[in-house]
Amino acid sequence: MRTTIGYLFLGSLSWAVFAVPIIPDNNFWLYQGDMAVGYKRNGLLSPDEHWPNGEVYYTIDEKFKPEHVAHIKLAMQIIQSVSCIQFLPAVEDTKNFVEIKVSLSGCWSNVGFLGGKQTLSLPDQGVDEGCFRLGTIQHELLHTLGFLHQQSSPDRDDYVQIAWENIQPDNISNFQKYNSSRVGNFGATYDYGSIMHYSVSAFKKSAGLDTIKPLQSLNGRRMGQRNRMSDADITRLNNMYKCNNQTEMPNVTAKAIEEKTDPPMETTQS
To answer: Any idea which residues are catalytic in this one (predicted)?
Structure first.
């Protein structure tokens, strides 16, 4: 299948993304590695891009094995347990839903509520391997809910320095900064420990190089962790969807993931 190369401008020139391939079947750009972004979409600050009433209807590809389905549903349960979000199975006449499907091209998701059918894509890997780690599934579900990557937030230059010279040339666009007219922090400060943050060496050219350098103390946090949502992630989600504030992971949920110590993904980063 031939890939079309084009240009995307969102909000302002600081949001320009160059030579990013369009996914030919649905006219979406695969931006920053795992976000399929429509070229006519508005900013995620808009309530129109939030799922109505916090209800996300979904289908799960029948090609997934039962253990994969259980892992996807556990990730959903974790998000539900700390917010007012509800993941609900789509039925035959459901018009707006996310199709969680088996992918041959890694893990990625449409961002925010689009209306109609949209996609969250996961590879057919072993449970807790690669993109099928519990934290990575949560990461992609948060994209579906409207989250973007933390290290590209408008205020990131106060918190991190991007080592452009250490980034793989084909992945420079993954480190573009968002425009403040399009995205917001929803009451949460910049968070090195966010499940939406890249690791210090994401998309590095070679071993031993860092691509993101913190400008402040990490205070024990690990950039690029894919174990669980941080307190700031939970605050941001609850504020985005106007939930009652919930800022701690319930014990029943924490127990399910407390032993997971997955290392951050480095060469490729969701």
So the answer is: 140
